[in-house]
Amino acid sequence: MCRKILITTDGSAVSRMTACAGVSFAQQMGAEALVLFVAPEYQYPIYVEIIPPSYPSEEEYRAAMERAGSEHVQPILDACAKKAVRAEGMTAFAESAALKIIDVAARHGCDLIFIGSHGRSGWGQLLLGSVTNKVLSHTRIPVLVHRLVKEPLPD
Q: Which residues form the UspA domain (predicted)?
């Protein structure tokens, strides 16, 4: 039985639909949820002697990504609240989203990683997203891959 489920989001419509399925699954299992958004690390401009004034500082970038992460995580936390699923949300920074997902799941004692795969037909069914594929191949924590039957409408 699962006690704590890591639900990932990247803010996309596909991710939101997957996260909603993850919330329902957590409710059915009587588990709590940890909702995670992984932001890319700050990238310093290369081959530039002087950083352009419009280029954000590392602090500005991190603050903007924290805000974006909160915006992506909050609707999922709201869905958890509506279904009486205890949940917390977080934004993490990493070069590799897959490895960060695995690390966060392990550090927070998650029993399961709930992650999405794009719903495709034909040859596309054979392909998982690169993040999902890396999570599957690098973790010992059980992973539930949720595949959408149809693509969501564009935002």
A: 1-145
Over the chain (155 residues), the average pLDDT of each successive run of 10 is 93 90 97 97 74 79 96 97 98 96 98 81 50 93 87 57
DSSP secondary structure letter of residue 86: -
Give dist(CA 57, CA 44) in Å, integer: 9
Phi and psi at residue 26, to the nearest 5°: -60, -40
| Domains along the sequence of the chain with CATH | 1-41+99-155 (3.40.50.620)
DSSP 3-state of 153: coil
